[in-house]
Design brief:
Helices cover 57% and strands 20% of the residues. The protein contains 13 helices and nine strands. The relative contact order is 0.18. The longest helix is centred in the first third of the chain and has 45 residues. Strand 5 and strand 6 form a beta hairpin. It has a six-stranded mixed beta barrel with strand order 2-3-7-4-6-5. The protein folds into two domains: 184 residues, no CATH class; 148 residues, no CATH class.
Length: 369
């Protein structure tokens, strides 16, 4: 009975460590996949970086981007009001060259002549394909009729869905000429970039135009970026806390376990084995147990992620944008999932051994018989 009890305590300790490592890698990879998909969709529409300029001729900027392996799109970006009947909404208008092959993939396939907007925004202002809307610029007025805001009337060519809420609710694409006619300026103020923006490109950009300002997607979306990082940090903290609770249970189990084998250890001490050797052996055994259990949990987690990625059930469109739960396994996630349980488990195992060593005296134990 005592042997079975000791085995159960060891199995519970091993299972707790395996579960901790499994939960860490599984949750980090699934949450990381969700976050990566969200940022990826946004970057596909709005670019990995944006260069702010004020130029008529943008060919040198586009050539420079292409030279460094980047896709580039020049545009005039402006905040306007879109109106249909009595409904008005603020929007961000992108005046682009519709012949540019580097347009965002979602809208590249639409051959729009006047205006392209998302279905979510279309529902807000009650428009459909073929409807006429007005783009109003309160910052540009004509004094001919008494400071009346300028506006232009355009027809909606196509409705699309980008699966990026902040884009679908507030962004509109038109031909560059339409914006130029509204603001009476034939210029470009943005160059959107897709790809890995390296320091060599930034240096070349400064040499080309020292007044140009480059901001990455992360800088332009600091609130969202920091919120996602905070979410990741809190997730790691919560599951590390779970590992801490598991380790506390392991500590209790180890104290009970050591109390159960106290007689066996005393017998070994009588036969000539030193106390320090037994403690050292127990410490090595517990460290090995922590390492093997954490590695086992990591491999079980990776296996579960593989099965989820390959055979995961599809999610209904009205619930989630992605059809399946995305998985993103990173070296950082693997290291955290492996070393956090090992560190916490080893720390509490060492404390359990220390407590046992302080409280148990083999000589007194033997005399008690």
């Amino acid at each position: 009975m005592h042997a079975k009890t000791r085995q159960k305590l060891l199995f519970l300790a091993i299972f707790g460590l395996v579960l901790s490592s499994f939960a860490l890698i599984f949750m980090q990879s699934t949450m990381g996949g969700l976050q990566d998909k969200l940022m990826g969709r946004s970057k596909r529409m709005l670019g990995d970086a944006v260069v702010s300029i004020d130029q008529v001729d943008v060919k040198p900027y586009l050539d420079l981007a292409h030279k460094h392996g980047l896709k580039a799109q020049a545009e005039y970006e402006i905040e306007l009001l879109i109106r249909h009947k009595s409904l008005i909404r603020p929007v961000i208008v992108h005046g682009v060259d519709t012949e540019n092959p580097d347009l965002p993939e979602v809208i590249r396939h639409y051959n729009f002549k006047e205006l392209l907007l998302a279905r979510d925004l279309a529902h807000q202002i009650d428009v459909g394909e073929g409807s006429q809307v007005q783009l109003i610029s309160p910052s540009h007025v004509d004094s001919f009729l008494g400071d009346v805001p300028r506006f232009t009337s355009l027809y909606v060519d196509t409705l699309f869905v980008s699966d990026v809420p902040e884009v679908d609710m507030a962004h509109v694409w038109v031909r560059h000429r339409s914006v130029a006619n509204l603001v009476r300026v034939l210029k470009f103020n943005r160059v959107r970039l897709w790809g890995d923006v390296k320091p060599s490109f930034i240096e070349a950009l400064i040499s080309l135009d020292s007044s140009a300002q480059l901001k990455t997607w992360e800088q332009l979306n600091q609130t969202l970026h920091w919120a996602l990082r905070l979410e990741s940090g809190m997730m790691i903290f919560l599951f590390s806390s779970m590992t801490l609770l598991v380790s506390l249970s392991i500590t209790t189990g180890l104290l009970i376990f050591f109390n159960k084998v106290k007689g066996d250890l005393a017998a070994m001490w009588i036969l000539g084995r030193s106390e320090s050797d037994m403690v050292l052996g127990a410490r090595r055994f517990l460290i090995l147990l922590n390492v093997l259990a954490s590695i086992a949990g990591l491999f079980f987690g990776l296996g579960a992620l593989y099965l989820l990625k390959r055979y995961g059930t599809e999610i209904m469109p009205d619930v989630f944008v992605d059809r399946k739960i995305p998985v993103l396994i990173t070296p950082q996630g693997i290291l955290i999932s492996l070393f956090v349980p090992i560190f916490i488990g080893t720390l509490f195992s060492w404390w359990s051994l220390r407590q046992f060593k302080r409280e148990v005296n083999f000589l007194s134990y033997v005399r008690g018989f």
